[in-house]
Amino acid sequence: MKMGLLAFILAAVILMKSDGFIVKGPAAHLVVPLGVSAILTCFVDKSLPIEGLMVVWIRADSNSLVHVFQDGVSVPEAQYQDYRDRAHFFTDQIQHGNFSLLLNNVTAEDKGFYRCKVYNEHDSSETLVEIKSVERLIVSGSDHSISAYVGYDVTLNCSVDSHITPEEIEELSWKKTDTYQDILVLLFQKSRIITHSSHEQYRDRVEFFTDEISKGNFSLRLKSVRTEDQGIYRCHVEAGNFSGNTTVELAQLGFSALHGMVLMLCIAASGSALLMSVLWYLQHYRSQNTNKALFLQMLVVCVPNLIMFFAFLFWGVIEGFLNETVACCAHYFLRPLLLLWAAPHSEHFPGERKTTMHCIVHLQYSLFANVIYSVLFRAFWQKSVNYAEFDRVLITVLFGIMILISIINIVFLLAELIRNKDGRMRAVLDFVSDIGHDVLPPLQLIFLFYAFKAASHALFVVGVFPLFLTLTRYNWNNACEKKLECLKSVSRIAWLIFMIVVNVIMVYSHLMALEKEKDCAGWACVAAFLQVLWGIVVLKHSFDELDLPYRPVVYLFGSVVVVLVNSVALMAELILKTVNGERAVGDLRNIVFPSECLFASSVLLLVILEPFIKYNQQCCQNSAESNQASRSHQNHCSQDNAAASDESPSTGSHQNQSSVELHELRPLLRTQNQESGRSEETEGTDSLVAQTSAALTGNTSD
User: Fold this and answer.
1) Domains, the chain, ranges and CATH?
2) Is the dihedral angle over the CA atoms 347, 349, 354, 358 positive or is it negative?
3) Going by fewer Cβ within 10 Å, which terminus of the chain is more open, N or C?
4) Which residues contact 654 (CB under 8 A, 6 or more apart)?
């Protein structure tokens, strides 16, 4: 049928004359974008009757029928298969002499010459239309998946093959395809690389090869590959009416040398903590060698924690994220200060014992708070482009005041540790340090509430209430013990309740301020530990006793058990992430800082409850001494009974002698008890007298 129709058309072209009308086409050739629709223009200079009218579109190079209009209707069954459902007439315009053809979804194969032929009963004419080129946007990448070792750099290929220059590219994005949503890796938009729009997982780890962009090379360099980077990445390009994309798979991530180093460091930290603590115990309790015990104690305090510092540092390079890495590294770098405060043998440290112990804990709090809030300020600054200029200035000023207060604290504390001399400058630094320590927690909350867009109506309550409470601590002991005539134990219990209330309020306020952050739980754990440290620093202003009962037990828990828990958690997280591609905990701050809070809280409770513990120990010691004296006297009486068993006639005289001895012994013991002033020993003395009387009576009856 197609061949017959084509022969009929060719015969008509030969036989018919073309002097009745003129068929016109486009003024120039067509350049058509790939995938869009093109209009092939064909019209006559006057209207033609529909009766006997036939319009034929033919592909000139292959004589393929593109479309036919005959006797007032289209004839789609005459179309060549490649143009079926793609080529259409404007049927309502044909009666006006418009025979143009709409060609949809232009492909690269549509390039070439097209002939438009118009016939009626008397005349015929034609025009030629050329699709000179089909603009194509070809985006190509890698044909196979890419493998890489964790910790190394990898390149994901994306090339744009087009006559379109980089300046004409509206947007080029690298995204990682995910189950729920795509993650933006890096964006090129309007001739600029937009780095701040990258997801936190890839920020500061991805870049283009800027010298190659002009050549259409938009390959992505991914630095320090992590196991969570495994997946499929898509390079998508949009330029005007064109778009294209390619995908690259990053797979077969291997166990790198840095992974092995982290595992070895965790094992070394656990092993050194156990070994050195055993050696310290043997020197301290067996050989009583104080110098060696002090040296081993310094090793237990410093070596495992510095090893864990490097373990978290390398973990941050290969797997961890910035907030987690900085918080854990800073904590383990400063952790020996808290351990030194809780450790035995602190009396052998240089300088005045009380001053040295207070300064090292205060120094840890100031340094750690400085690091943490610097990281939070960095997080604010990255999103500060959406803030008003006044808010940015105000938050920056608040942060500057906080840093200045912390620096003054640090200078004062270092001066205390190194020189420990009186003077006007020392008095000024001491005054500024004390005032700064009181206002620092409220300032921190105000900074967080403003910087992270929290509920501003709660700002006054949350900020001023802790300030009011902390300012009352200077006269706490005098007001409670002297003015209210409270016992020292009651004062400490009241102080414990006060500290719990304040710290709960502060931690809850941190949660409110950071609730919109993705790692809010991790920040809450850090805030809780900071508050416990703050409580220790505040407490030492009021209670300066350092002779803590059960001190070695708490010290071993902090120096050994906490290190073991954190090193095992880090190893488990590393292995599970490498094997499964997903982290088990997600944020190691949720393990590191709760375990540290448990240790620091134990120390804090020991300081507060020291009188109760000492009192119970004294009672137990007195009871033990009384029982030992009773057993010793009973043994002595037994020996006397054995010696007197052969002298039964003198029983009466022995009984009289025992009564005299008992009568003389009771006043003597009571006099000694009154001189010592111990009510517990009175009960022990009465018990001893009763036992002695029973023993003497028993001997007499025997």
Assistant:
1) 2-135 (2.60.40.10), 138-254 (2.60.40.10), 257-614 (no CATH)
2) negative
3) N
4) 644, 699, 700
Distance (Å) of CA 514 to CA 372, 445, 459, 506 = 13, 10, 13, 12
Phi (first) and psi of residue 121, to 5 degrees: -70, -20
Handedness of CA 259, 260, 263, 268 (dihedral sign): negative
- 540 near 434, Cβ under 8 Å? no
| Confidence band, pLDDT 50/70/90 cuts, at residue 583 | confident
Least Cα distance to 115 among 19, 45, 23 occurs for 23
- Give yes or no for a contact between 622 and 681, defined as CB atoms under 8 angstroms apart: yes
Tokens of 634: 């009973």
Q: What pTM value is reported for the model?
A: 0.58
pLDDT at 547: 53
What would the pLDDT profile of 286-319 be if each residue is shown by its tens digit? 666 667 777 888 888 899 999 999 999 998 887 7
pLDDT at residue 670 greater than cutoff 60: no
Distance of CA 239 to the CA centre of its chain: 38
Q: Specify the range with the lowest mean pLDDT, choosing from 391-395, 430-434, 478-482.
A: 478-482
Q: Decide: 37 and 106 in contact? Cβ < 8 Å.
A: yes
> CA-CA distance, 329 to 316, in Å (whole number)?
9
Task: Identify whether the C-beta of residue 689 lies closer than 8 Å to the C-beta of residue 664.
Answer: no
- Check if the beta carbon of residue 239 is closer than 8 Å to that of residue 177: no
**Three-state secondary structure string covering 242-289:** EEEEEEEEEEEEECCHHHHHHHHHHHHHHHHHHHHHHHHHHHHHHHCC
Q: How far is CA 650 from CA 135, 392, 457, 661, 695, in A?
A: 135, 104, 95, 16, 18
Start-to-end Cα distance in the chain = 143
- Asked if residues 234 and 247 have their Cβ atoms less than 8 Å apart, the reply is yes
Which token pair is 148? 């890489």
- Do residues 606 and 554 touch, judged by C-beta distance below 8 A? yes
As separate numbers, helices (DSSP H) first and strands (DSSP E) second, the chain gives 18, 22
Which residues have a Cβ under 8 Å from the Cβ of 615 and sit 6 or more positions away? none
Return d(Cα 565, Cα 598) in angstroms, integer.
Answer: 12
User: What tokens does 139 get?
Assistant: 């985006």
* Distant-in-sequence, close-in-space partners of 533: CB < 8 Å, separation ≥ 6: 338, 361, 364, 365, 368, 600
Residue 341 · residue 360 · CB < 8 Å: yes
Q: Looking at this protein, which amino acid is placed at residue 371?
A: V
Q: For residue 129, count other CB atoms closer than 10 A to its CB.
A: 22
* Residue reference for tokens 């049928």: 1
Long-range (24+ apart) CB contacts under 8 A made by 497-500 are: 498/469, 499/535, 499/538, 499/539, 499/604, 499/608
